[in-house]
C-alpha cells in the first residue's frame, strides 16, 4: 500500500530531476501510483530526446517495490520470441533456462503469464520505441489486460511516432511530452555546468551557444555533446589570460569560427579531438572518394551523361561522322539546369556501354572485368540498379552529384560540360 | 521464382541441399584430391618452391604496409573507453578504397591482430550477406563469437567433430542473452569487436537497427565497431539517420592507396634480382594496366602473376632447369629427352646456332649463366636510372621502377627518345642535386658487391662525383668569342615578320654558345660518360640475349584471354563457329554466315535470328526456317502445317537456351514474337 505521502514525494523528486514536466509527471503518477486499478494502456509520445524513456524508467524505479516492471526496447526484439521471453524474464525474475517452454507466439506468452498467476500482482510493461513492433502486436498488447483478466496490469507504449498513426483500435491514455523551448534548454544545460567555472561565464556561454545552434538542432543529447566540446574552446582565451572572463564580444569573436565549423557537423558524432582536423580531413576524403580505376571513372561519367541527357541528343553528340552537330546549336548546360533539378533518369545497360565506347579514346574489348566494373559501381552506391538484373535488361541511374562528376572528369582530363545538354 | 520464367512453361524443383550431405561430399572431395596428388613432377615442385618464396615475401610486405593502419585502428578499438553516460559505441570507420576483393584479407588481418591484443578482444566479422535481417546478423555475430575458440580444432580432423559438437551452440539458440551469459564467463576487460566489412552493400535499414540494438546492450557488453567504407565518409552520414549516428563515436582511419601497394610489390618482390621469376615487359605492362584501369585489386594482380608463373613452368622442363640451382642444372639437363633438346635448338633467340652435339650442354649452361648476370646487371641499372630520372619534371620515363622496367625490357632504354629528354633535363641540375644522386648511386653499387661490373662502375661514379665536386661554379672557360654576341642584337629591326622570327631564333642560338662554366662542362661530360659507359652496359635488355625465352616470361597472347575473360566474344565464337570449341570435322565453315545442318541447334537458331532485320521475330517463321535447315528433305514435300514434334521440341529447347543467355526475350507487344536484345549482325 502506497500512502499519499510517498506519491507526493515521488512527484517531487521526479520534478527536481526532470524540469518543465510537471503536468505529465502529475498525470503519470496519478495513473500508475494508485491503489486498485491500473489503466490498460498508456501512450507516451514525444520527439527524440525529450526524456520519454528516462522519465518512465525513473518513475518505475521509484515504485519497483510494489510493482513488477519490465522495460523492453523494441529495437532489440528482432523476433517475437525475444520480445516475449525478455518480458517474461523481467516479470518473473527467472533465467532463460527456467522458462517452462519456448515462447514463440502470443498465446504461449499469455499461458506462461497465467501459469505464474500474474493476475495477483501489479504489473507494468513498457514497450520503448514501439513503432518497431508489428501492428498486430501493438493491438494485442493494448488489450493484454483483457486477456489476462487482471486490472492491475498496464502496458506503456513509448514512441516518437504520433499515436494517431497507429491503428485507431487502441484505447490509450495519451501523454505528450513537448519539445523544450530555448529558455528551457538553457535552464537544462545549466545543470551540466562544469564545477570550476562561475555561473556567469557559463550563462554567457549558453546564450552564445543556444543563439547559434537552436536553429539547427533541438536535440538535447546532441546539444549537450556540442556544448561540452565548445565550452572547452570557449574558455581557452580566459585560461590563457588574454581575455577577461566577462568580455563577451571578444570571446564571441574568438569562438565564432569553431561554431561555424560545428554547425556544419551537427549530428555527425564529432568527437572532441577531431574538431580541428575536421575541415581538412573532409577535403582529403572527398579526394579519396574519387580514387577509382580508370575505366570505372569513364563508366561513371558515361552514366552521368546518360542520366542527365535525353536519349534524343545521343546521335547528335556522339556520332562523329554527322555534320549536323556543328549546324544545330545544342543548348549548353548552365548552372542548376532543369535536368539537374529533376534528377537522374533511368538508362539501360546498352546505352551506357554505347556512350562509354563513344567517349573513351582507347580501344578496349568488352571483357568480363569491364562489365564487372558496372556492378562494382552499383555495389558502391554510385549507380543505382533497377530491375532484377537477370533476364530483363537491367536499368541504372547515376547517383553522384555534378560536383563529384566534375572532379572525376578533371582527373581523366575529360570535358564533361561539352556533353551536357540543358533541355 | 523469377529466375526460371521462360518461353515454355514448366515447373522447376529446387532441392534443398542437406548440410550434412554437403559436408560429407566435401570431405570426400578432399580425400580424392589427396589420393590423386600431383606426382612430384619437376615443373610442379619448381612452381611450388618459387611461389612459396614469393608468397612469403608478399605476406611480409602486406603486413608492413598495413601495419600503421592496422595498429592505429587496433589502438583505437582497444583503448577508447566508452563512457557510461554517453552510451556511445566506439566506431572505427575504415576507409579502405574501392578495391573490393582485397578487403577480405585486410579484415582478416585486422581480426587476427585484434585477437592478439591486450586486453583480450573477441572478434566477429560480418559481411553484407549477413545483413538480410537483424536476426541473421545477430545470429551470425553471436555464433562467431561464442564458437570462435573451437574453430581451428574442428576444421582439421573429423574425429574431433563429435567432441566439439557438444560445446557448439546451435544457431537457433544464438541470441543476445546467450551472448551476455557467455560474456560473463570471459576474463574481465574483454571487448567485443564487430567488423562490418562492406558498408555500402549492407541493407541500410537492417544495419541501422543492428546498431541500435548493439547500443542497447553497451552497458553490459563493451562493443566496439569497425565499419569498412569503400567510398567516402560522407556516405556514412548520408546513409545513417541522426538517431543512429548519435549512438556512434566515430573515428576515421584511411588505408594506403592501393597503387602504393602495387609499386611496393613490384619494387620489393618481383623486380628484385633474388626473385627467380622474371617478367617480360609486355606482360608486366598488361597486368599493371589491368590493375590500374579495371579494379585496383592487389589480390587479382597477384593471382594473375601466379597464373603467369604456372603457365611459364607447366610442362616446360627447360624453363624449370633455368631456375634450378646451378649444381643441379647439369643432372637435370642430362635427364631431358631428345624432343625437348630439339626444341632448344629451334629457339629464335639463339639464331639457330645451337646444334645437337656433345657441346650442347656446356653452351646451354654457359648461356644461361650469362643471361642471369645480364638480368642482374639490368636490375642494378634500372635502380640507377630510377635515381637519375624519377624526380625530373614531367617524368618522361615515369617515376616507378615498373614503368622503366617495361620500357627497358622491350628495347634499349638509352635509345629511347624520352631518355634523351631526360638527359637534357639532367644537364640543368644543380651541383647539390647531382651530387646527392651520385651518392645514392654509389650506395646501390656498394650493396651489390658480388657483381664485377658493379665494382668497376662504383670506381667510375666515385671519380665522376669528385670531378663534379671540384669543378668551380663561377670559373668561366674562355673559349667562346664574346664579340659575336653583340652583332645580331643591333640588327633586330627588320621588315617582315618571318625575318624577325628568324633573327630571334638566331639570337637564341647565339646565346646558347655563351661560355660554359667549369661546372657545367664537367656536368655534361660526366653525364654523357655515365650513360655511355655505365648505363649502356647495365641496361642491356635481357630480351636481346640468347635463350631469354626460357627465363623471362613474355608470352602475352597465351595468357591474355585467361587473365581477363571475354565472355561475350567467347559466346559469339561458340555460336558462329562452333567448330572452334568442339573440334568436329563436320562443321567446317567456308564463310562466317554459313549455316550447316550438323551444327548444334542453338547455333543454328542464333544464326537464323541474326538474319532477321527487325528486333521483333515471329517464332513461327523462325521455326519454319529452322526446319528447313535441320529437317530431312522429305519433310519439304509434306504438308507445311505438320511440324515434326521432335523438331519442334528441339527448336523450343534451343530458343530457351538463347533466352537464358540473354539474347532474346518475350516480346511485350506481340504474343507470338520474341524480341531480340542484341543489336547488329555479323
TrEMBL record, chain A:
One of its GO terms (cellular component) is nuclear origin of replication recognition complex. Residues 292-420 form the Origin recognition complex subunit 5 C-terminal domain. Residues 202-244 form the ORC5 lid domain. GO terms for molecular function: DNA replication origin binding. It comes from the Eukaryota. Transmembrane segments: none annotated. PANTHER family: ORIGIN RECOGNITION COMPLEX SUBUNIT 5. This is Origin recognition complex subunit 5. It comes from Sipha flava. The lineage of its organism: Eukaryota, Metazoa, Ecdysozoa, Arthropoda, Hexapoda.
TrEMBL record, chain B:
Keywords: DNA replication, DNA-binding, Membrane, Nucleus, Phosphoprotein, Transmembrane, Transmembrane helix. The keyword Chloroplast does not apply. Component of the origin recognition complex (ORC) that binds origins of replication. DNA-binding is ATP-dependent. The specific DNA sequences that define origins of replication have not been identified yet. ORC is required to assemble the pre-replication complex necessary to initiate DNA replication. Binds histone H3 and H4 trimethylation marks H3K9me3, H3K27me3 and H4K20me3. The gene is LOC112689299. The lineage of its organism: Eukaryota, Metazoa, Ecdysozoa, Arthropoda, Hexapoda. It comes from Sipha flava. This is Origin recognition complex subunit 3. It is found in: Nucleus. GO terms for biological process: DNA replication initiation. Coiled coil: none annotated.
Amino acid at each position: 500500500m502506497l500512502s499519499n505521502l510517498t506519491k507526493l514525494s515521488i512527484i517531487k523528486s521526479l520534478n527536481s530531476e526532470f524540469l518543465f514536466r510537471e503536468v505529465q509527471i502529475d498525470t503519470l503518477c496519478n495513473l500508475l501510483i494508485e491503489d486498485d486499478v491500473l489503466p490498460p494502456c498508456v501512450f507516451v509520445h514525444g520527439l527524440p530526446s525529450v526524456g520519454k524513456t528516462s522519465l518512465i524508467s525513473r518513475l518505475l524505479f521509484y515504485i519497483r517495490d510494489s510493482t513488477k516492471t519490465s522495460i523492453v526496447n523494441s529495437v532489440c526484439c528482432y523476433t517475437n520470441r525475444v520480445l516475449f521471453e525478455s518480458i517474461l524474464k523481467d516479470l518473473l525474475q527467472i533465467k532463460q533456462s527456467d522458462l517452462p517452454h519456448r515462447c514463440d507466439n502470443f498465446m504461449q506468452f499469455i499461458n506462461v503469464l497465467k501459469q505464474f498467476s500474474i493476475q495477483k500482482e501489479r504489473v507494468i510493461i513498457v514497450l520503448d520505441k514501439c513503432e518497431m513492433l508489428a501492428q498486430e502486436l501493438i493491438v494485442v498488447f493494448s488489450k493484454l489486460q483483457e486477456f489476462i483478466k487482471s486490472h492491475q496490469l498496464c502496458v506503456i507504449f513509448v514512441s516518437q511516432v504520433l499515436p494517431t498513426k497507429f491503428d485507431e483500435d487502441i484505447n490509450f491514455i495519451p501523454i505528450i511530452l513537448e519539445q523544450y523551448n530555448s529558455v528551457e534548454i538553457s535552464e537544462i544545460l545549466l545543470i551540466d555546468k562544469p564545477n570550476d567555472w562561475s555561473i556567469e561565464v557559463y550563462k554567457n556561454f549558453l546564450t552564445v551557444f543556444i543563439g547559434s545552434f537552436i536553429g539547427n538542432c533541438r536535440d538535447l543529447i546532441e546539444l549537450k555533446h556540442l556544448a561540452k566540446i565548445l565550452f572547452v574552446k570557449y574558455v581557452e582565451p580566459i585560461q590563457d589570460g588574454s581575455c577577461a572572463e566577462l568580455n563577451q564580444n571578444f570571446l564571441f569573436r574568438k569562438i565564432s569560427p569553431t561554431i561555424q565549423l560545428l554547425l556544419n557537423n551537427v549530428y555527425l558524432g564529432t568527437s572532441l579531438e577531431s574538431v580541428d582536423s575536421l575541415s581538412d580531413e573532409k577535403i582529403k576524403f572527398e579526394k579519396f572518394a574519387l580514387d577509382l580505376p580508370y575505366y570505372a571513372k569513364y563508366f561513371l561519367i558515361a552514366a552521368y551523361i546518360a542520366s542527365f541527357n535525353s536519349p534524343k541528343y545521343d546521335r547528335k553528340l556522339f556520332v562523329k561522322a554527322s555534320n549536323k552537330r556543328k549546324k544545330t546549336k545544342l543548348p549548353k548546360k548552365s548552372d542548376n539546369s532543369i535536368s539537374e533539378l529533376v534528377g537522374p533518369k533511368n538508362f539501360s545497360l546498352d546505352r551506357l556501354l554505347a556512350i562509354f565506347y563513344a567517349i573513351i579514346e582507347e580501344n578496349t574489348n568488352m571483357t568480363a572485368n569491364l562489365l564487372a566494373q558496372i556492378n562494382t559501381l552499383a555495389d558502391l552506391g554510385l549507380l543505382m540498379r533497377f530491375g532484377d538484373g537477370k533476364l530483363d535488361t537491367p536499368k541504372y541511374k547515376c547517383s553522384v552529384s555534378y560536383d563529384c562528376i566534375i572532379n572525376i572528369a578533371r582527373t581523366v582530363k575529360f570535358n564533361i560540360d561539352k556533353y551536357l545538354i540543358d533541355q | 521464382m523469377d529466375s526460371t520464367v521462360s518461353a515454355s512453361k514448366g515447373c522447376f524443383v529446387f532441392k534443398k541441399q542437406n548440410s550434412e550431405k554437403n559436408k560429407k561430399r566435401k570431405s570426400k572431395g578432399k580425400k580424392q584430391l589427396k589420393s590423386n596428388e600431383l606426382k612430384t613432377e619437376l615443373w610442379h615442385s619448381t612452381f611450388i618452391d618459387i611461389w612459396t618464396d614469393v608468397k612469403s615475401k608478399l605476406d611480409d610486405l602486406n603486413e608492413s604496409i598495413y601495419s600503421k593502419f592496422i595498429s592505429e585502428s587496433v589502438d583505437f578499438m582497444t583503448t577508447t573507453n566508452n563512457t557510461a553516460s554517453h552510451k556511445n559505441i566506439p566506431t572505427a570507420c575504415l576507409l579502405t578504397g574501392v578495391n573490393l576483393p582485397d578487403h577480405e584479407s585486410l579484415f582478416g588481418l585486422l581480426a587476427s591482430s585484434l585477437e592478439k591484443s591486450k586486453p583480450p578482444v573477441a572478434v566477429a566479422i560480418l559481411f553484407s550477406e549477413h545483413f538480410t535481417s537483424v536476426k541473421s546478423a545477430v545470429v551470425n555475430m553471436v555464433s562467431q563469437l561464442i564458437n570462435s575458440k573451437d574453430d581451428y580444432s574442428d576444421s582439421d580432423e573429423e574425429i574431433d567433430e563429435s567432441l566439439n559438437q557438444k560445446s557448439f551452440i546451435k544457431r537457433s539458440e544464438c541470441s543476445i542473452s546467450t551472448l551476455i551469459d557467455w560474456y560473463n564467463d570471459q576474463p574481465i576487460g574483454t571487448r567485443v569487436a564487430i567488423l562490418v566489412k562492406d558498408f555500402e552493400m549492407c541493407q541500410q535499414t537492417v544495419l541501422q537497427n543492428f546498431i541500435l540494438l548493439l547500443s542497447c546492450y553497451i552497458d553490459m557488453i563493451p562493443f566496439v565497431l569497425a565499419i569498412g567504407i569503400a567510398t567516402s565518409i560522407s556516405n556514412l552520414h548520408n546513409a545513417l539517420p541522426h538517431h543512429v549516428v548519435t549512438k556512434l563515436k566515430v573515428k576515421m582511419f584511411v588505408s594506403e592507396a592501393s597503387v602504393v601497394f602495387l609499386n611496393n610489390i613490384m619494387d620489393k618482390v618481383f623486380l628484385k634480382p633474388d626473385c627467380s621469376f622474371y617478367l617480360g615487359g609486355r606482360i608486366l605492362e598488361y597486368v599493371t594496366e589491368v590493375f590500374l584501369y579495371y579494379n585496383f585489386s592487389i589480390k587479382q594482380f597477384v593471382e594473375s602473376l601466379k597464373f603467369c608463373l604456372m603457365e611459364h613452368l607447366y610442362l616446360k622442363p627447360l624453363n624449370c632447369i633455368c631456375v634450378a640451382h646451378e649444381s643441379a642444372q647439369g643432372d637435370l639437363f642430362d635427364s631431358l629427352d631428345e624432343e625437348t633438346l630439339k626444341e632448344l635448338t629451334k629457339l629464335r633467340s639463339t639464331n639457330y646456332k645451337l646444334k645437337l652435339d656433345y657441346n650442347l650442354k656446356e653452351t646451354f649452361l654457359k648461356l644461361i649463366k650469362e643471361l642471369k648476370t645480364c638480368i642482374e646487371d639490368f636490375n642494378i641499372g634500372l635502380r640507377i636510372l630510377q635515381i637519375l630520372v624519377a624526380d625530373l619534371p614531367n617524368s618522361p620515363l615515369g617515376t616507378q621502377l615498373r614503368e622503366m622496367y617495361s620500357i627497358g625490357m622491350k628495347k634499349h632504354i638509352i635509345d629511347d627518345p624520352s631518355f634523351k629528354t631526360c638527359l637534357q633535363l639532367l644537364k640543368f641540375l644543380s651541383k647539390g642535386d647531382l651530387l646527392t644522386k651520385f651518392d645514392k648511386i654509389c650506395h646501390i653499387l656498394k650493396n651489390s658487391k658480388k657483381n664485377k661490373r658493379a665494382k668497376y662502375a662504383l670506381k667510375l661514379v666515385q671519380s665522376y662525383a669528385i670531378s663534379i665536386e671540384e669543378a668551380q661554379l663561377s670559373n668561366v672557360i674562355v673559349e667562346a668569342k664574346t664579340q659575336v654576341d653583340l652583332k645580331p642584337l643591333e640588327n633586330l629591326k627588320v621588315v617582315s615578320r618571318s625575318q624577325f622570327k628568324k633573327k630571334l631564333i638566331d639570337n637564341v642560338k647565339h646565346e646558347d654558345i655563351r661560355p660554359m662554366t667549369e661546372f657545367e662542362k664537367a656536368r655534361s661530360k660526366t653525364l654523357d660518360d655515365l650513360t655511355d659507359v655505365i648505363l649502356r652496359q647495365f641496361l642491356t635488355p635481357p630480351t636481346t640475349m640468347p635463350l631469354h625465352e626460357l627465363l623471362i616470361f613474355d608470352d602475352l597472347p597465351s595468357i591474355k584471354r585467361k587473365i581477363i575473360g571475354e565472355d561475350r566474344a567467347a559466346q559469339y565464337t561458340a555460336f558462329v563457329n562452333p567448330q572452334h570449341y568442339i573440334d568436329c570435322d563436320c562443321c567446317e565453315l567456308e564463310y562466317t554466315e554459313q549455316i550447316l545442318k550438323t551444327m548444334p541447334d542453338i547455333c543454328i537458331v542464333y544464326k537464323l535470328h541474326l538474319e532477321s532485320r527487325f528486333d521483333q521475330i515471329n517464332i513461327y517463321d523462325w521455326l519454319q526456317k529452322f526446319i528447313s535447315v535441320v529437317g530431312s528433305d522429305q519433310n519439304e514435300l509434306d504438308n507445311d502445317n505438320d511440324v515434326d514434334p521432335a523438331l519442334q521440341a528441339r527448336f523450343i529447347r534451343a530458343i530457351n537456351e538463347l533466352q537464358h543467355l540473354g539474347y532474346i526475350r518475350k516480346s511485350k507487344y506481340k504474343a507470338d514474337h520474341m524480341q531480340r536484345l542484341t543489336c547488329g549482325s555479323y
